[in-house]
Every structure is written in structure tokens, then in C-alpha cells.
């Protein structure tokens, strides 16, 4: 088999995705602009090795058990952080601000990964640092997607005022959380640390379960409306990439 043939065969396999899990011969040949005979031989080879199976009724192909074996091997060898850290470093380099991943841990959010800003003056936090879920962009964007009963339980457990901008009254917090949930992201200024801004987006796992958040943070004096919009766009892109990694690995609570 030549490298060109191998490349074509791998391109065929890559067409079987979550969005398009089955393909008929003619349908796939048209999609890839391939000769039917060549594609048929590739599909049959994959089928004989267990990478694809053909439905006896529809005659369409889908991924076979051999692919599950390969996925299992990947899951055992690769950690989620292997995917997440490069995404965060790229995001930090693009924005020149610190980027950190926060995971829910009971009533708190725990910093599990961080890529610090290359600038001298920056927001810095240590891995393992915990913050109450009712304060700051990185935590409030997690709390906003919890069940109402869980939100009230967290608030009833007690709230502390870290700065003059920290919301501690139950109704104020719940109203803020509803707004965050509606817009799908959270922006805060000086709620947990004076003179620090944060923009956070939620990270979901299987069945839309809220797991944590991805956040950009830095000194307030550096944030502008244009930067805020740019940072949010970059965060949403990073969020999508991380959630795709979670789905690929088939894992959720990897940071527990």
C-alpha cells in the first residue's frame, strides 16, 4: 500500500463522525468524489478487520468493535490535561492574559490547570486553589448551571464578602446566576480579588452536565470593550475544543 492509498483510506474512516455515523457506498463516494470501485474495496477491507460493519437491511456502514478497542487504548494512555493545556497556552499567548481551568468540587471551584500571562503584571493563582462557587466569573459560571436546589444549598451554607463588589444576599446572587445562565458566560470585576477582571465560560461533559469553567483573568486596567469581546470569542472556541476532548476520551470527572 502506498502512502497516498493509506491517506485515502484514513480519510474514508474519518468521515464516520458523531454528526454522520452511517454511510452508504454511493453516498460516501459522492461526498468524497471517489470512484465507487476503489471505495468499495476500502470499505470491505475495513469491514473484514472489524473497523466497520455493514447493516444487512440498509447496507450502510458504521464503526465496528475494533474502533472501540482503539478508543479504549487511547483513553488509558492519554489524560485530558494533554489536550487541555495546549489549548490554554495558545489562548494565553493570543490574549496576553492568564487562562485557568476550574473544576467543581462540592461548594467550591478548584483551579486544576493554569497558563499564566507572559506579562509582568498578571493574575496568578496556584493549582489546587479553591474559591466559593458564588463569587467570581470562574465559579459563578459553574454555579449558574447547577439545579436551583443546589444553588440555594450553596448560598445557605454561608456567604462571605471578599471585596465591596462581592454579592452575598441570596436574591442578588440568584438573580445574577439567572442572567449568567441566559447569556452563557460570566464577566466579573473585583468580586474576589480587588482590581482583577474575569471572563468565564462553562465546560460541560456528558448529558450536558456542568463540570467546570475556562476563564481569562487579568488586571482591570487592561480590559477594554473590544478586548472583552475578543476574549469571549477566544474562550468559546477553547471551550468547544475542550468539550470535544472530553467527548473523545469519554471521561468526565477526571480532575476529581
TrEMBL record:
GO terms for biological process: negative regulation of DNA-templated transcription. It holds the Pfam family HTH_IclR. Residues 66-248 form the IclR-ED domain. Keywords: DNA-binding, Transcription, Transcription regulation. Residues 3-65 form the HTH iclR-type domain. GO terms for molecular function: DNA binding; DNA-binding transcription factor activity. InterPro entries: GAF-like_dom_sf, HTH_MetabolicPath_Reg, Tscrpt_reg_IclR_C, Tscrpt_reg_IclR_N, WH-like_DNA-bd_sf, WH_DNA-bd_sf. It comes from the Bacteria. The keyword Transcription applies. This is IclR family transcriptional regulator. The lineage of its organism: Bacteria, Bacillati, Bacillota, Bacilli, Bacillales.
